[in-house]
Amino acid sequence: MKHLQWLSVARSLALLAGVVLAFGLGMAACAPGLPEPESESAQLYVQYCSGQGCHGPIPPQGAGKGYWRSQYDRMIDLMIKESWPLPNEKEDLKIRAYLEKYAG
Fold first, then answer.
1. Same-domain pairing of 2 and 18
2. Whether residue 64 is found in the same domain as residue 87
3. Which of 14, 19, 32, 42 has its CA 20 to 30 A from that of 93?
């Protein structure tokens, strides 16, 4: 009996994993890409603003300028707190300009 219960649980987990994977792939396919992905500014954004593995780069056109100003400042504070690498002043200005230019 326990073997049958285990099989039922395993099948349910496999089904759930499949649904989650399909949903994730569908969302990734719907997400717009980064503007000018080969530009230095976009590369800096990817380098510093991808959450140290927590998340991928979020396309700036998905939010407004005010959001990106406050979010970027909040993330810089987090990077300092966590001792993550910080952009230098020149890189910081390029990232801010990139977000400002392409904010939705």
1. yes
2. yes
3. 32
Between 53 and 63, name the one with better pLDDT: 63
What are the contacts of 30-36 at 24+ separation with CB within 8 A? Answer: 31/59, 32/59, 32/61, 32/62, 33/59, 34/59, 34/60, 35/59, 35/60, 35/61, 35/101, 35/102
Q: Phi/psi at 8 (nearest 5 deg)? A: -65, -45
Same domain, 26 and 47: no
Q: Which domain holds residue 86?
A: 34-104
Answer yes or no: do 52 and 83 share one domain: yes
For the entire predicted model, the pTM comes to 0.67
In this predicted structure, what is the pLDDT of residue 10? Answer: 47
Which are the contacts of 40, defined by CB distance < 8 A and separation ≥ 6? 94
Q: How many domains does the chain have?
A: 2
